[in-house]
Amino acid sequence: MAEVDVRLERVTKDFGETVAVDDLSLDIAVGEFFSMLGPSGCGKTTTLRIIGGFEEPTRGTIYLRGRDVTDQPPHRRDVNTVFQSYALFPHLNVFENVAFGLRRRKVPRDEIDARVRNALKLVDLEGFDKRKPGQMSGGQQQRVALARALVNEPQVLLLDEPLGALDLKLRKQMQLELKRIQQEVGITFIYVTHDQEEAMTMSDRLAVMRNGRIEQVGPPEEVYENPQTQFVAGFLGASNLLEGELKEQRNGTSSVLLQGGDVVHMPSDRAPFQTGVDVLVGVRPEKITIAPENGPEPAAGSNSVTGLLRMSTYIGVSHQYNVEGPGGHEMTVWVQNLGTDPSPTPGERVRLSWQREHTFAVLPQEGLVLEEEEE
Question: How would you classify residue 41: left for phi > 0, otherwise alpha for psi between -120 and 50, otherwise beta?
Fold first, then answer.
């Protein structure tokens, strides 16, 4: 079992009447790339600041490698932070920006020179040591900020939306760079983001947060394929959620009667609830096959429903279809653009089918509204 690097035990942070972090417990392993993902106000940045020592918890305990650091200031914790604002010194060149922390710690000059050059090589900025921050692009400045944090060889690196100010293409490039760097140095990275794709691209594990609590934690693939709550199903990627009642569980298969009369099936471990309860049946848009309603029957053992195709959108690598499905619920289907079969057109009756293994169920969460996250 991996050694725990960061442990939070029942951490709560109140700001007056507002509870930003609510009785949160979490273990992060040594050398793990761990992301905290969620919408604005979910408590992810406050949790990161508590780990770094920039906020004191109202209650709870923080451990770094088994040492209680709850009352320790930031400079007494073996932690460095990279923020969205690069916070570089504009009057210093790249070398001096990166060397700043080492000089404050009175590291010998020869060692400073070697460590700074190694850090610049790691972030692919060899030859940039004499430039000033104002002479560099946003992506290059972010690399300098990363080198400045890594040169101190911290036990844990905290990253608070560090790519938020970059354009989309550069963000995607830097996501891969960050993962490469983390694997090369072997330091524990704790990353805060509201970008689902970013979290899934880089993380060994991620925690989806809402209202100061963790809704689900696990490897990206596990959380995406088997969401445990309505919020996780809707926030991490897109899900079609259909209302129904759990009717039967037999021989490892659960059956749900949907509004509109269709019955769908799934493995019982993907519907771990009592029969008779109201559930939301979920399937991801890319798992669904769309065909004319009067076409060939779907494969044996598949789930299928019929509906009216309302909209077809061409988005290059795929087509997106919006279908009025069971109970009047809109369902979204993504089909890879292979350029083979003719596309269905709006106004047609269609059949949607998918494998039982790609079906899951969650309980409805009262008052839940999934909003588009603002940049």
Answer: left
